[in-house]
Amino acid sequence: MGRVKIAVLDTGCDISHPQFLANVGRIKGRKTWVPMKSETDVSDSFGHGTHVIGLLLDIAPDSDIYIAQVTEDKSVSPSVAAEAVLHAIREWDVDIITMSFGFAREQQEQETEPPEISLTDAILEAHRSRVLLFAAASNTGAYGLRPSFPARYTGVMCIYSGDGHGNSAATNPTSRQNDYNFLTLGEAVESAWPVQLGGPGVHKKRKSGTSFATPIAAGLAACLMLDTRRLLSREDARRLNE
């Protein structure tokens, strides 16, 4: 059985960071949807994606990472996210997709024309392809009333932030009533930070929120998936995929 393949939809990654230089063989794919950049330039000037991918490298050491840069800051377009999800499924053939972002509604108001394919359609294709999707619930607190999209969509693993002792973070939105709510560590989590943003000798930073709980949950799932593959016989694995 092959290694678990994880696509990360985020702000890219600082490939020059010591942690990534030490794991460069595990970065199997790179693609940016940011305009005016070369297709494989996923350099991260914001830090969010570097932190997220650093967590995955630590938590799921036997996984391969595919970097999909869908934004350079906090503003992600649902249509771009949809394109990245489809690319991860069709071109990279990933097992898991992690998305540390969310929207109040599927289509943003500034997208005046309907996209060629919606994020909902892309999620449905992921389900048909048996790809696991993880998304951040958001950090709106109880005022948010419900998790963001796509975390609230049926079949997407909706990830909430906890303090490591089973306590829910105050910034978590109200949980939805279905079987896909999960809470894991997301408070004061230390991980990689871009060298150019951290100052001399500062290569790590602590961050909190569902954005950082999400890759931890995805990494744990990747470990379970790999162990399951190792335990299953080839015949059992074939039946599961039928």
The count of strands amounts to: 9
Fill in the CATH topology.
Answer: Rossmann fold
**Total discrete domains:** 1
- Which CATH class applies here? Alpha Beta
* CATH architect. name: 3-Layer(aba) Sandwich
Distance linking N and C termini: 16 Å
Query: SS-based structural class?
Result: alpha/beta
SSE ordering: EHEHEHEHEEEEHEHH
Tell me the helix content: 25-40%
Mean pLDDT: 90
Largest sheet data: 7 strands, parallel
Taken from the alpha-carbon principal axes, the silhouette is: globular
Question: Gyration radius, to the nearest Å?
Answer: 17 Å
- Beta fraction of the residues? 15-25%
Protein name: Peptidase S8/S53 domain-containing protein
Domain Peptidase S8/S53: 4-238
Family: Belongs to the peptidase S8 family.
GO biological process, one term: proteolysis
What does this structure look like?
It is globular, with a radius of gyration of 17 Å. 30% of the residues lie in helices and 20% in strands. The protein has helices at residues 18-21, 48-59, 78-90, 119-128, 195-198, 210-231, 234-241; strands at residues 4-10, 27-32, 63-69, 96-99, 132-136, 157-162, 181-185, 189-192, 204-207. Helix 2 (48-59) runs parallel beside helix 6 (210-231) and helix 3 packs parallel to helix 4. The strands form two sheets. The protein has a seven-stranded parallel β-sheet, with helices on both faces. With 242 residues, the chain is α/β, with parallel strands linked by helices. It has a single domain, classed as 3-Layer(aba) Sandwich (Rossmann fold). The model has no long low-confidence stretch (mean pLDDT 90). One of its GO terms (molecular function) is serine-type endopeptidase activity. InterPro entries: Peptidase_S8/S53_dom (IPR000209), Peptidase_S8/S53_dom_sf (IPR036852), Peptidase_S8/S53_subtilisin (IPR051048), Peptidase_S8_Asp-AS (IPR023827), Peptidase_S8_Ser-AS (IPR023828), Peptidase_S8_subtilisin-rel (IPR015500). The active site is at residues 10, 48, 211. Keywords: Hydrolase, Protease, Serine protease.
